[in-house]
Amino acid sequence: MKIKKRYIVLAVIVGVIAGGVYYIVHNLETIVKDAVTKYGSPITGTEVKLGGFHISPFNGDIKLSNLTIGNPKEYAQPYVISVKEVTAKVDVKSITKPIIVINRISVSEPQVTYELRNVSYNNISDLLKNIMGGSKPKAEETKKDSGKKVVVDLVNVNDGKVNIAASIAGKGAGAGIPLPDIKITDIGREKNKAQGTSLAETISIIIKKILSASYQAVVEKGLAGVKDAAVDGVKAVGEGAEGIAESTKGFFKKIF
């Protein structure tokens, strides 16, 4: 009889643990899917895809694979940003709380494509405009997710590359330049307090930083064949690359 009771107690404990693991996995999975499918495409105005993800519920490790952000429809290249792997570390204890704490997000070897449509337009400028005036979640979604906020302590973007693509006056041009490493800290924190931001705003902050840094890298390199488009197109970037237009003009005066 005592043995049976032990088995019953053991079964209950295993059931509770299994239920807790399932709950954590389900919540983390929901966060990932929301970030990509619900908020990604409306924010950028282009197709956002996620190839796959893996979650370790016991330590909060998340690995995303083959994440792509599509180019605006006017451009020939398929993607603006392509990333083979993104890893994140989530504070498991915060999953059930109103503010989810993400200790770290690491974006490894992102490939950014800077494409010129003509001397006045480029894909990064257009995408930044989409993000700044992008779509907002539907009213019912906003109400449903009103309590879901996140804090991100650290975002690292490392070993990236900006690929240049252009077709101006019938002449194509191609080149690649390094993307400087990017570090973002304390997203959603105000004066060291965890105030939290929405998933949509968090995604916008990270994407804008990557795009703006990519644009700056192209401008500073002054690649041959992109002079006019870089000077004119940068004006459309707005707050995502504030102040670049004037520095661009001065830079090109020195090298041309």
Describe what this molecule looks like in 3D:
Mean pLDDT is 74; it is low at 9-23, 137-146, 168-173 and 229-256. The chain has one domain (2-255). The chain has helices spanning 2-44, 123-132, 139-144, 199-221, 227-233, 244-255, and strands at residues 48-56, 61-70, 79-90, 99-108, 111-116, 149-158, 160-168, 171-179, 182-187, 189-190, 193-194, 197-198. The protein contains six helices and twelve strands. Helices cover 39% and strands 34% of the residues. The radius of gyration is 22 Å and the shape is elongated. Helix 2 (123-132) packs antiparallel against helix 4 (199-221) and helix 5 packs antiparallel against helix 6 (244-255). Strands 1, 2, 3, 4, 5, 6, 7, 8, 9 and 12 form a ten-stranded mixed β-sheet that branches. A two-stranded antiparallel sheet has the order 10-11. It starts with a helix and ends with a helix. It is an alpha+beta fold.
Comma- or semicolon-separated keywords:
12 strands, elongated, disordered C terminus, two-stranded antiparallel ribbon, 34% strand, 256 residues, alpha+beta, single chain
Layout of helices and strands, plus pairs?
Blueprint: H1 2-44, E1 48-56, E2 61-70, E3 79-90, E4 99-108, E5 111-116, H2 123-132, H3 139-144, E6 149-158, E7 160-168, E8 171-179, E9 182-187, E10 189-190, E11 193-194, E12 197-198, H4 199-221, H5 227-233, H6 244-255
Parallel strand pairs: 4-6, 5-7
Antiparallel strand pairs: 1-2, 2-3, 3-4, 3-5, 6-9, 6-12, 7-8, 10-11
Helix pairs in contact: 1-4, 2-4, 5-6
